[in-house]
Amino acid sequence: MKGLLSQRLIFYFILVSIFGFSACDLSQSSQSNVASLDETDALEQVGTIEIQETDDRFIGHFENADVALSPLRLFVADLQMHRIAVVNRDGDIERFIGEHGEGPGELQTPVNVAVFGERVTIRNADTNDYAVFDTTGTFRERNRLPDDHWIEGPHAIVSDSEGYVLPITDIDPRDVGGVQATPDQSTVARLDTTFAIEETFGSFPKLYLGGEYVWRERSIDVSADSLAAVGYRLLPDVYIYDLAETPTTRAHELVLDHPDFKRPSKEIPMELAVQDRDAYEERVSNVSSVRHTYLLGDSVVVQTFNNRTEAYYQEDFPEEERDHYAILGRIDSDEQKHLDLPGRVFARDAEDRLYIELNHVPDEREIGIYEVNWP
Questions:
Q1: Distance separating alpha carbons of residues 162 and 84, to the nearest angstrom
Q2: Cα–chain center distance at 245
Q3: What is the pLDDT of residue 320?
Q4: Taking a C-beta distance cutoff of 8 angstroms, is the pair 109, 69 a contact?
Q5: DSSP code at position 320
Q6: Peptide bond before 167: cis, by omega within 30 degrees of 0?
Q7: 127, 137 Cβ separation under 8 angstroms
């Protein structure tokens, strides 16, 4: 009996060793699939913008920007200073658009900015309206979404000559509870230049249909070929819609993944966020957050996300507590590329170049301009 027991113990330890080494090998193999920008030529740096800040011209905190070309200008939505900073190719802050206030031409919380031609459209998060300026900073008009509609996605507004594409919903996000999506809910809308809704389309992924998730934000990009890419905050997958069709139809679904993407293991209900902030912060610190979805040409999708530590929620936006990643995917293929990024990707321009924050420290801010050479 003792001999048999000894043999079984030896066999057990052999199995543990085999599977232990296998798990280690799999983990190393998984991590080896994630490349930093120094280790890949998928993104090639073609330029740098070092933002020049002074006591009079500076940027507080921003999460979103847009880019205009000919000449190159960054339009940075400064949440802290309640204005848009316009930065030129040399890094100089040329001017500001808007100022703090609630009147015409004044901004409360400019969370998002979209530039098309001479039109600069800015979303005020606190008042849920949209201020429209021209590129010189002259105020033109203020618009609101139709009654009983709300936007879900601070980083999602696309504008063109016809109007806007926005992630909107008919459920008031301020309600406690009731944030579970339904199959008949549209997730995206096309609006004209006065913000009248022309069409709603899209649907929530299965995750949102099976539970309550307060993180329902969508990220959107539209290509010159009238394809719209829609991402969801808690999933790496992307839905592709054909805006040339009437009504708009879903043309593709990209099933994406990344070794560092952390999916939610529990629901994130509105009630938790309102009534138990500590429990809410602990739960959301263990899930990934999709920030932007970009559509390059008619086939390449860039999905960016970040992972946050619990310390991120203890102070005012400590950037050091976020790790940034990207997934490159193709509409016509299962091929993917997984990247580890030095900072936030916050914009793409009309030439499909990505703008990545290389240094977020005030007075030392540095933006890298990257061409995507993939596949």
A1: 23
A2: 26
A3: 87
A4: no
A5: G
A6: no
A7: no
DSSP annotation string for 50-78: E-B--SSS----EEEEEEETTTTEEEEEE
Give the sheet arrangement for strand 119-124, strand by strand: 110-116, 119-124, 129-134, 139-144
| pLDDT score for 175 | 63
Residue in this structure with the two tokens 């879900």, named with its chain if needed? 152
Nearest to 50 by CA among 85, 87, 80: 87
| Rounded Cα distance, 183 and 206, in Å | 9
Per-10-residue mean pLDDT for the chain, 375 residues long? Answer: 38 33 36 86 98 96 93 96 97 97 91 94 84 96 87 77 88 68 91 93 94 92 92 96 94 96 94 90 94 94 94 80 96 95 95 97 96 96
At 35 the pLDDT is 97
What would the DSSP string read from start to end of 326-340?
A: EEEEETT-S-EEEEE
Of 231, 233, 283, 228, nearest to 251 by C-alpha is 228
- The β-bridge relationship of strands 34-36 and 354-359 is unpaired
In order, the DSSP letters of 144-202 are EPPTT-EE--TT--EE-SS-EEE-EESS-TTSSS-----TT---EEEE-TT--EEEEE-
Q: Are 343 and 48 in contact (CB under 8 A)?
A: no
At residue 102's C-alpha, the angle toward residues 100 and 103, to 5°, is: 105
Position 156 scores a pLDDT of: 74
Tell me what pLDDT residue 169 has: 81
Q: Beginning with the edge strand found earlier in the chain, give each strand of the sheet holding 288-296 in spatial order.
A: 34-36, 336-341, 322-330, 300-308, 288-296
pTM for this entry: 0.89
Containing 12, the helix (H) or strand (E) segment is: helix 2-32
Is the sign of the CA dihedral 327, 63, 204, 276 positive or negative? positive
Does residue 342 sit in helix, strand or coil?
A: coil
CB 100 within 8 A of CB 83: yes
pLDDT at 153: 66
CB 355 within 8 A of CB 324: no
Radius of gyration of the chain (CA): 23
